[in-house]
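User: Structure tokens for both sequences below?

Assistant:
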Amino acid sequence: MKKTTLISFISGLVIFLSCQKQHPTQPYPQPDKTSQDKLLRSINWENGMITNFEYHPDSSLQLRKDVTNSSNQSIHFIWKDGRMIEHFNEIDIATNEYIYNPANQITKIIHRLKNNNPNRTELEFDYLPSGHVDELHYFELYEGVKSLTGRSKYLYDANQDLYQIENFDQDGNLRLIYQIESYSPPCKLLPWVFIYPGIQINFSLYNYPVLQKMNRFPAYIRQTGYDLNGTITSQFMLENILTLDSSTVKSLEIKTTYPDSPQSNSSISAEFSY
């Protein structure tokens, strides 16, 4: 399997640390009423990248800007009736659309080209009575034919904490497992701040329907890949080390460890400003 680089984790693993967790009776994105001085304004990364955030007057997220010495990119968030309905990077050719059910849960994410080409990827979520994600199905729609390409199954402990995600291919073969072995202390979260458009690596864990049910950050994650015979083909561990002020995140260090390739081990840190 393709090895994950650390830079991928900047967009895919630091997904949801921020300033306000949604109230459990309103599980999907109502505008955040947190006062403007409590909103996350920027993240300064050790590698020199600066991530800035802009908000609407009602404190709902409007724009994320990633700035480096060589490039700038802006990610836009489109809202309607208190729901985030579209999410895109202005330099990409594709966008994500979000479909909700009457219970205000995201049931489908459509990843399509901005030119309205009918070919697309559709991600469909099934829920448990508790509101936690039960399964995620991946479909490709090509020339009018919709085909299943994969499935993710979510497992929870007695406290309703997610501890494992099992990823299967289109034929039902187990190909990848994420094990969350520990969590951070409780911290304030706003998932939309860090979720990138598109279908990023580790999407089965780092997507809004899964993250919005968490009030703690996964601190130690083990990823294991399998071939069609059930033999382990790859493994790495991710460690997220948070510094908190009460429940507000002040800094984060991300460490990745590859047992079979220690020369690929790496880390990066970031400071949060409000």
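Moving on to the next sequence.
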Amino acid sequence: MATVPESQDIGLWYYNIENGRSDYELDLIQKEIDSRYGQGTFVRKLMKPSVGENLFSKNILYCLIYSKYRTLRIDIRNKGVGNNIIEQSVVPMPSRSDRPSWLPGGICLESPAGEMKIVLRCQGDGELDIRLRGRDERNAEGKRYPVWIDCTYFAVNGEAVFEETKTICHDRPYVYRKPAVDGEVVELAFRWEECHSSSVLEENNRLQSELKISRQKEAEHTASQLQDVVAKNKRLSTDVANLKKALSKLRQSHSKIRSKMQEFRIGAYLKYKVLSKLMLGEMRRRYQEKYQEQKRIYRAIRKGNR
């Protein structure tokens, strides 16, 4: 009967599911559980501290939620330009086997089986790099959280590398390296189980504390940014008010200038009219004087002729 350790149950369940609600398959799990055991079972029983023991004993629950607690990830790489590895046999068949671009000349395997034997052949001289990890699990915010695995046995070519428990996760892998020779056949053997270490609970409590501190710092940073934005808005409002005042003064100055220009135009026109009249009167006066002078001369001439 598959059971989930206390440390994983408390530490990871609340951190991953209840607090973060981070599992991407959560909705599918809820539908599956509710369809099998009645509507509302998932929320009523699984999402509460007192989790129903009857549901823990069901293989469907273990497979859907807790298989990741038994899944070991093995990254194997033959370091060197153009080097590679060829897996000749993997028993039992892994749940995942691929060659990601970020692992050139290597292979990435995952399995919840609890044990595995691998026979591989090296292509090219280099360095065989083997890393034992937990799965890469992330919450809704994209932050990776640890899924711990207890590795209990690791052997290379029949020689034990370790036989004591090594507690690992994705970001704290166990790393093994050895020289790789072109054409060399390497036999690997692994055994592992779900984590039983009491340090896992402490680690997850620490992670929860760090997450709270991180969220608090993020909130403080957001509040600080908001205060900066408010201060900038106030400064902008003050600048806009000052610009409006300056514009108002410019409009008043412009109005005064227009008024003075209008007065100048009116004054100039009046002066023109007055000067015109004065000049016209002067011309008339001179004309009259000349006319009278001519008239006198004309009369004098006529009088002398008589």
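User: Anything stand out in the second?

Assistant: Residues 6-66 form one domain.
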